[in-house]
Amino acid sequence: MSAYSCTELSANRVFGGYMESGRQRKPERVIGPFGEALSLSDLPKNNVTRWVIRRKAEVVAAVNGGLLSLEEACARYDLSFEEFLSWQDSIEKSGLPGLRISYLSKYRTEHRATQDKLEQSGSQPSKDSYPDSY
Prior knowledge:
- The chain has 134 residues and is mainly α.
- The protein contains 5 helices and 5 strands.
- The chain has helices at residues 6-11, 53-65, 70-77, 81-94, 101-121, and strands at 13-15, 18-21, 24-27, 30-31, 37-38.
- It has a 3-stranded antiparallel sheet with strand order 1-2-3. Strands 4-5 form a two-stranded antiparallel sheet.
- The longest helix is centred in the last third of the chain and has 21 residues, at 101-121.
- The protein is elongated and about 55 Å long.
- The two termini are 22 Å apart.
């Protein structure tokens, strides 16, 4: 389900290298995760079932560059906000390797172990900033 109605989507137009949607101007292309130009047609198909690092990184680059809004990306790819934001956070903290499932699992395991130690020692654990929504 799209964040825009069919009427709004059909009203979008390309103008001077930017797509115009209502009052928002969006770039026609953005720089992808590997330095390539990405347009909407270059993004993963909306029926993706296997999210490899490259596809995740392309969607994050599209949102960061303004090609898609967060809401559009989540609707287009049936993602939760938390899932998308975890991808974005992983790239910011660890680069593309941070998007690997094994990396996320390892990090979550280490984070939980630290929290458990704090709880056992009687210290107040910090607020869990990485919930199980990866």
